[in-house]
Design brief:
The protein is an alpha/beta fold and 619 residues long. The protein is built from 24 helices and 20 strands. The strands form 4 sheets. Strands 3-2-1-4-5-6-7-8 form an 8-stranded mixed β-sheet, with helices on both faces. Strands 11-10-9-12-13-14-18 form a 7-stranded parallel β-sheet, sandwiched between helices. A 3-stranded mixed β-sheet has the order 15-16-20, covered by helices on one side. The N and C termini lie far apart (86 Å).
């Protein structure tokens, strides 16, 4: 092949280009400077279009081809290579609809021994097998391209390969096969051959495939030719040649990417799609080398949950419960494995590994082989280090996405649990800001938009007010008023304002995580409040007084006064309290999964009273 003269212009083959979509794409590529080989069964039409592009035949030719025949396609590809010595793009567009009825309605009264004739499967041969033949041949020739192997294959699919239309059962099945062919072949061809393969899926298009499209469809329900061209250009313009295995819907005037369908059955579905290298090598002669492929049989034994922030309040509560949960092993992820808290965990038999939220690669290493991840970030840490409220949020969002991306890159992961909060900014359209809540909610949204496969296995836990704050957080802790022996709690909120109480943080986070994991796929995409109580501030102080024997008085102040007293931390909590006065941030919606659905045992959950009783010695 090296003796063939090689064109300096890029070369494209467009199948099914004697009319309709193929002819539009061929003309468009030629206008972009490509040498174009048109092909189809109708010689007169094809020759006329090729001549209209370049009568000399130097940059446009027609090769009569039946794509359902491998020999015919092989002749097409060989002819193109012999003429131009390269192949950069294959547009596998040739197609037709059903050529007979598979329903056989006219044979309802046929005798049982009068068998129906063999179905005409030309549609499958042209639409599906034709794409397989074209991919096989394109891969062969693109391996010999000048300047190194590589190229682009773009297959024309159809939206009724996604949404079945009963008029065209065979066509729907063939196009569905095309979509899956593209998704399946894409990663391997890109990795091993630098060849990308993608799919454009139009709706109704005015082509000769069926008569009277403009009668059967409203104008706004048809795909515009210019939208189709933009779709093909999306992949042709991918100069890095990294987009592969994608299906792109060409709606009326809009291009919509169809991503991964998600894991409706959780780990079962995720395992189903995973490449098992011994099988791949047995069929294809070498390993796939795809990230996350299984090198051998899966390990049996306890599953592993990685707990970030394992030496903190939430993470520690998860570790406390999960280390006692049958079938699970805990991997504590911490910044400093030499801290006293980390050494204590190690002494208790917990695996302790180092990772930094600022280092995505360290997180990926920490997550290797895990089946579940509990992820939590700490906005307050950055605030107390001198950052502003928004700066703290920006850092938290970066760190939260580092954790999420590392989780998404973990092939063994079956469930991701993200600790988050409601957002005043989102609920009130920016009229109220609560940075320590808003930036966490930003991470929720970005997981859903940027990491859809991770989102498909994510459960979101909403945490509220920690009762422990009354013992350890100076802003919240009741203090003795000199001279009268009473204790005052001064907060910038109303005494009858209610807040979600997360209860005992040494236990409750772990209960919820354990039950979320036990619930499995039914908890995917759902939010859950931790824990069971919503109390007023007056109720909390009254119970605190009862347990401690110290008379507490609630004193309401303003956010401005509290900010002067406590600085940014006071301002932040004041904003949260105002949020709670304006609405119930933790109101359960259709996005929530209830404690009952999670199988939460209310008797196991430690509420406000139990938490304060356990802390009585600290007051």
């Amino acid at each position: 092949m090296g003796s063939v003269a090689q064109s300096e212009q890029k070369v494209a083959i467009v199948t099914g280009s004697t009319s309709g979509i193929g002819s539009w794409v061929a003309k468009h590529l030629h206008s972009r400077g490509y040498c174009v080989a048109l092909c189809g069964r109708r010689d007169t039409y094809g020759q006329a279009i090729a001549s209209s592009l370049d009568a000399s035949g130097n940059s446009a030719i027609f090769v009569q081809t039946d794509v359902s025949s491998y020999e015919s396609q092989a002749n097409l590809f060989q002819t193109v290579w012999n003429k131009w010595g390269r192949l950069d793009v294959l547009i596998a567009n040739a197609g037709c609809v059903d050529r007979d009825s598979k329903y056989n309605f006219a044979r309802r009264n046929a005798a049982v021994n009068d068998l129906p004739p063999q179905p005409d499967t030309s549609c499958t041969d042209i639409d599906y097998k034709g794409a397989i033949y074209g991919t096989t041949l394109a891969t062969h020739f693109m391996r010999h391209n000048p300047g190194g192997k590589g190229g682009k294959i773009i297959v024309t699919g159809s939206m009724i390969g996604i949404y079945p239309c009963q008029t065209f059962p065979e066509y729907c099945a063939a196009k569905a096969g095309v979509h899956q062919w593209v998704r399946t072949m894409g990663p391997i061809l890109q990795k091993k051959e630098n060849i990308t393969i993608n799919c454009i899926m139009p709706g109704g298009v005015e082509t000769p495939a069926m008569p009277d499209f403009s009668t059967a469809f409203l104008p706004e329900h048809m795909t515009l030719p210019e939208t189709l061209i933009r779709g093909y250009d999306t992949f042709i313009n991918d100069t890095e040649n990294t987009r592969t295995g994608e299906c792109l819907e060409a709606a009326h005037e809009e291009l919509i990417s169809w991503g991964h369908p998600g894991y409706k059955s959780g780990a079962f579905a995720k395992r189903t799609e995973k490449v098992y290298e011994p099988w791949f090598e047995a069929i294809h002669g070498e390993k796939s080398e795809l990230p996350g492929s299984m090198q051998g049989p899966p390990e049996k034994g306890p599953k592993i949950i990685a707990v970030t922030g394992a030496t903190g309040s939430q993470g520690g509560g998860v570790v406390n419960v999960m280390k006692k949960t049958p079938g699970w092993k805990v991997r504590a992820v911490t910044r400093n494995t030499q801290s006293d808290a980390a050494k204590k965990l190690a002494a208790e038999g917990v695996e302790v590994v180092q990772a930094s939220f600022d280092d995505e690669e360290s997180l990926k290493k920490a997550f290797e082989g895990v089946h579940a991840i509990y992820a939590v970030t700490n906005w307050w840490e950055h605030l107390f280090q001198g950052k502003s409220q928004d700066e703290s949020g920006e850092i938290e969002e970066v760190q939260g996405m580092n954790i999420a991306r590392a989780a998404a890159a973990t092939p063994t992961l079956e469930h991701y649990i993200w600790s988050t909060t409601p957002s005043a900014k989102r609920i009130f359209k920016g009229k109220l800001l609560t940075p320590h809540m808003d930036y966490k909610a930003n991470i929720d949204a970005r997981i859903k938009s940027e990491l859809p496969e991770l989102a498909a296995m994510t459960t979101y836990l909403y945490f509220g007010y920690y009762p422990q704050n009354m013992a350890f957080f100076p802003l919240i802790k009741p203090i003795e008023y000199p001279g009268n022996g009473q204790y005052i709690q001064t907060l910038p909120t109303k005494p009858d304002a209610k807040v979600l109480l997360s209860g005992d943080m040494t236990v409750n986070p772990g209960i919820w995580v354990r039950q979320v994991l036990a619930t499995g796929s039914k908890a995917f995409g759902k939010y859950s409040n931790v824990a069971l109580e919503k109390w007023t501030f007056q109720q909390m102080l009254d119970v605190w007084s009862e347990i401690t024997g110290k008379k507490g008085v609630f004193v309401e102040t303003t956010i401005d006064a509290w900010t002067k007293l406590w600085g940014p931390a006071g301002n932040e909590l004041g904003l949260q309290f105002k949020f709670g006065e304006m609405c119930d941030p933790w109101e359960e919606t259709e996005e929530h999964i209830s404690p009952e659905e999670l199988g939460i045992d209310r008797n196991e959950v430690v509420g406000f009273r139990g938490t304060i009783e356990g802390l009585k010695s600290f007051f």
